[in-house]
Amino acid sequence: MARIDDGLDNPQAFALLAEQTSARNLLAYGLNALRTAAFLETTRDPIMTMLSIGVEKLFKMALGLAHVAEHREWPPAVRFKNVWRHDLDVMLDELLGILHARMNRATHAHYVETMLEEVERDPALRPLIAALSSYGKQGRFYNLDLLAERPQAGPGPDEMWSIVEQVLIEHDDDLRAQRTAVTATDPAAQESFIHALEARTADSLERLWRLLAMAGVQGVLGDRGKGWGIDVDPDLVGRQIRS
Fold it and tell me: How far is CA 60 from CA 132, 147, 178, in A?
């Protein structure tokens, strides 16, 4: 790989490359499963597992690259452990702030600004990130904790996912029309509505993913972020993932 003079050594560069591949594939498999699942109730756990881990890796790499661009070193472990932890909500807020603050570093800022506006207008993004954040921190053990008679405080994964769907329906005329058309005697309409809802959910997360990739390509995340943005792009997932 080409040498980039930003303070990272070769082992760090190769570790970042491995994480790029991991995050890209976790997100691609997770979103593909979400879009194609016949019964979301039975596939929600693998979907949320892949997406929560993939989003966390993507966020932490983007935050790390922004830090490298400013300080010529990867963020210290204590920042990952005590500040970002597994809190996707916290990381999302910081990332959006970084994109706004570093927009003048973009080669063609218009591309990033347009995508950033779309992401920030998305009413489903915050509840979706909250659902994945909760799942990654403790929600994946919700039922195990209930069995152990130590129930978790707050809503479980199913309820948090339902909140995302309700927000999407509330803000999407087409989804509301499809839901209205669903009847007990028309399973095809029910299936069509569910798949449309799953697709809208996947679109929300992919829009954020594409924003971070574009921010990298355009130089918002520093010189190393340019190659990173190309490598984590959703289109670079391979035929084994695309249905």
Answer: 15, 33, 37
SS3 assignment, position 95: helix
pTM of the model: 0.92
182: DSSP letter: -
Judged on CB neighbours under 10 Å (0-12, 13-18, 19+), 107 is exposed
**Joined tokens for residue 97:** 């702030």
Torsion sign over Cα 220, 34, 176, 174: positive
In total, how many domains does the chain have? 1
**Whether 1 contacts 13, CB under 8 Å:** yes
pLDDT per position as a tens digit, 68-94: 999 999 999 999 988 898 999 999 999
Q: Is residue 3 part of a domain?
A: no
Instruction: Provide the domain limits for residue 51.
Output: 10-231
